[in-house]
Design a protein that fits this description.
Layout (H helix, E strand, L loop, with lengths): L10 H12 L3 E6 L6 H13 L4 E6 L3 H4 L4 E3 L6
């Protein structure tokens, strides 16, 4: 798979690169706990393909106290 975009990077990619650079190459991502869904897997696969130079630490949770520790959240409900 190859991900391409226009001359300017997507705002999310820019934001994640800045986060990864601040956190020694690691980006913390929260996805919901419980039943597995393909949408968060696809989102993580796309991010890994777009940013291969970074490590991703994935947290599976719905607890707010843990979600606030993540750099970004994917499909955790509550409008996130």
């Amino acid at each position: 798979m190859t991900i391409t975009c226009s001359k300017e990077e997507l705002p999310l990619i820019k934001k994640l690169k800045a986060i990864g650079d601040r956190h020694e190459g690691t980006i913390k991502i929260a996805v919901h706990s419980g039943r597995f869904h393909a949408d968060e897997l696809i989102a993580l696969a796309i991010l890994k393909e777009a940013l291969p130079e970074y490590n991703f630490q994935v947290m599976r949770t719905r607890k707010h106290s843990e979600l606030v520790r993540a750099d970004i959240t994917i499909d955790v409900g509550g409008g996130e």
